[in-house]
Structures are given as structure tokens and as C-alpha cells.
Amino acid sequence: MTNLLRILFAGMAMGLAFSATARTAASPESPDTLPIYQPLTLDDALTLMLTENPALKAAAHEAHAAAQQRRAAIGLRMPQIGVTGAYTYLAKDIGFDFNHLKAPVGEVAGKLLPLLPDGLRPEIAGYVQQLTGADWSIELQNRSVGFVGGEVSVPIWLGGKINAANRVAKIKEATVDEQSLQMRNALVSELVERYFGLALAMQVVDVRRRVVDGVRRHLADAEALERDGMIAQSERLYVEFKLADAERELSDAQLQMQTIAAALNNTLGRNDMWRPLTAMFLLDGLESRAYFQELALEQNPLLRQVGLKYRLAEEGVKVQRADFLPQVAAVGGGTFYNYQVSGLLPRWAVGVGVRIKIFDGLSREYNYSAARATVRRVGELRTQAENDVSVLVEQLYNELMNYRNRMRSLDASLAFAESYLRMKDAAFREGIATSTELIDAELDLAGVQTERLQNAYNYDLMLARLLEAAGISSEFGAYVRRPDVVVVSFDKN
User: Contact 488/280 with Cβ under 8 angstroms?
Assistant: First the structure.
């Protein structure tokens, strides 16, 4: 019995020790049923995310739209040129009709003619006859009229609104850029969480499967030994209990792995089965807390957005102030073609217009006061945001150091668990330790090994979030390649 169980648990110990960077060994399943995983490094995952993630693609379109809107604001400085055309049919011609005056004029002329000299009378009478016989109506404009023309307006001075509009457009474009950067940084943290989460989950599934296989083999041996009367029934029942626990933990681990794998695909914008190749790690050395806080105040995208919002509020004050100033514009227009348009109308015209708002119900005053209040409000929000980011950096940094320090304690626990397992194995061979004690020692060792990986995972996640808060998530890959990187594998080595 002693030799058989010693061989069993020795095989389990070999199965529990494996590297975090190594490929999962073949399971008891048939090779034809094993899933085919695509190897994926963290650098490749970052590249894939930046090119395929739908949210980043949407952000790129938004940035393009903001750039176009900024270009559109430049057009406010340019002349506005338009072409107009119209055809109109009036109810009647436009003009004056004096025919009703011919009779009175004829009567007056008839009274004046006898007073003229005889020599002039016939000639004047002829003129009067021609005059009274003519049409005394004047047509200024025919009822049917049409024209095609153009108009030009050039803003000269609008109280500074045009300059403010261009500055606002640039600020909005910069804001969209910072929002895109904030999204990229958040996605890097998300990728680290899911990439290393999948690596951890795969390793947990592997160890749970190995534990199930080992306990199942031990149960078969225990059943045989019980039939031979070499072990008590309680030992066999204990092994059955541990097998049920191991199978449940394996099922939970598999479901967790599937969930994380789906989440990783969502981040990558792809649908595939991945095997992470980059190992979880810790750093022997790390920059100071003050270093990251200074970076955060300079490069945190959220703080930059608040700063841009403050500038936008300042431009709002300038826009409202412009309402108190005169607005000047040059205008001009001309007719290219007309149909029956009266010659009395000009063919072209130019001029300068000035608009000064005298009173508008005090809306200008209230809007100006509101704009100044907005500046003060955003200023307070900026101060609060700076304080919040500093506190966040300190919190993340302290958690990072806690995980780093905790790894030393876990290394000590791992050394103890390994030593304890060796002691129990030797005692088992000598017949002074039970199989139950040996199984518990094996499981305790596996638990410490898993806890070390979980701690390394937490460290990497906190590092990603710290770099995100500092605005330098793009440098996470550089941190992975640093010379002071300590790879964390399932065993300590």
C-alpha cells in the first residue's frame, strides 16, 4: 500500500508544478477533441485591439468629424457668396395712370387758347390736341418679371465671435482627441485584465484537471486497498469527498475561463480561441509615487479634458461679451440676367452694414454673468479633479506595493508548503502519515501556487491602472520588457 500511494502522489506532484509561460500539457481527453488555441503575445494583443476594437474605430470617426468641424469654423472668416434667381407674376403692372386728368387739362386749355395771339393759337391748339389724345399712364414695372443674380457678404467685425468660434472648434477637436486617448488607456487596462485573466484561468483549469485526474486514480487505488482490508472505509470516503470537491472546482474554473475568453474577444474585436504567451510578472524596482503623480497631473486625459472645458468656458465669456459690441459686415450684389426688369432698378449695389444692439431685455447681461459663473464652476471642478487623480494614483501605487510585498510572504508560504509536502511524503513512506494527510499537503501546495499567480495577476492589473491614471498606458508593453521584470510561474522557479 505504501509504495502504491507514494507513486500516485508523486505523479500528482509532478502534474501540479508547471510554468505560467508553458503550454498546457495534454489532458486525458482525446487529441481529436482538444481545442486549437492561437498563440497570442501581449504586444500582438495590443496591436490587434488598437486596429480591431469597435469602440476605437468609432472614436476615430468621431475625431475625423471634429477635425472637419474645426475646418468648417475657418469658413466663418471667408466671404459668403450666393446665387439667387426668381420669377414673379404680379396682379397688375406697377405704374401711374393720369388719364383722369386729361379732361380738366382740356378744359383749362380751352379757356386759355382765346387769350393767345392769333398767330400762335393754331399751333398751340395742335399741341393740346396731341397731349390730350395721348395715353397718360406710366408703367414702371411689367407684371411679369424675373432675374438671376449673385450676392456677397464679408464679415468685417463681429465683436470677436469669429475668432472665438475658431478657438472653440480647436478646443472641441482637442477634447475629442483626449477622449479617444482616455478610451485607449482604459482599453489597455481592460486588455491586461482579460489577457492575464485568461492566462490565469487556463492555468487554474489545468491544475484542477490534474488534481481531478490524480484524485480519481487515488480513489481507484483506495477502493482496491479497501477491498483487501488494507485501509479503513473512512479513508476511501474522504477520497470520494475530495474528488467531488475537485470536480466541482474544475467545472467552476472551466466556466470562468470561458467567460474571460469571451470578454477578451470582445476587447480584441475578434472571435477566436487564444492562448496567452506573455507571462505574468512583477518588477523589482518601480518609479516613486511622486513620479506617477506628476505624470498624472500633466498627461491624464481626464484632467486634460477638464482643462479644455475650462478654456471652453473662457471662450464662452468672450462670445457673450461680443454681444455688447457692434457688428460690421460688407455686402454686395448684382444681376447677371433679368427678364422685363425695369431700367429704374440698379444692376448692382455694394455697401457696409453696422448692427448695434441697444436693448434686448437684459438677456446679454444675464448670459454674460452666467458665462462667468461657468468659468468659476469649471475652475473648482478642475481643482477637485486634480485632487481626485492624485488620491487615485496614491491608492493604486500603495496597492501595487502591497501586492509586491505580499509576494515575498507567498514565496515563504510556497517554500513551507513544498517542505511540508516532502515531509509528509517521507512520513507516508515510513507509514507514520495517512493518505489523507498527504492529499491535504498536495492540495495546500496547489493552493499556494495558485494564490501566487492570483497575486501576480492583481499586481499586473494594478500596474495597468496606475499607468492609465498617469496617462501612459501605451508604455505598459515597455514595462513588460524591462530588465528588472520577475516572471511569476506556477512554481517559484
Answer: yes
* pTM, to two decimals: 0.77
Q: What three-state secondary structure class fits 405?
A: helix
Contacts of 25 (CB under 8 A, 6+ apart): 15, 18, 206
Task: Give me the helix-helix angle, 435-470 and 161-227, nearest 10°.
Answer: 170
Mean pLDDT, rounded, for 235-244: 85
CA angle 400/406/407 to nearest 5° reads 95
Q: Which of 317, 63, 61 is nearest to 167 (CA)?
A: 317
* Degrees, nearest 5: CA angle 68-74-79: 125
Strand ranges (DSSP E) for 195-292? 274-276, 281-283
Residue 215 CA to residue 440 CA, distance in Å, equals: 11
Q: Per-residue pLDDT averaged across 329-343, rounded? A: 79
What CA–CA distance (Å, rounded) separates 232 from 302? 66
Look at 6-15, 214-223, 329-338 and tell me which has the smallest mean pLDDT. Answer: 6-15
Retrieve residue 483's grid coordinates.
530588465
Q: Count of H helices and E strands in the chain?
A: 12, 10
Cβ-based neighbour number of residue 309 at 10 Å: 17
> Do the beta carbons of residue 424 and residue 438 sit within 8 Å?
yes
DSSP 34: S
User: How many angstroms separate the first and last alpha carbons of the chain?
Assistant: 33
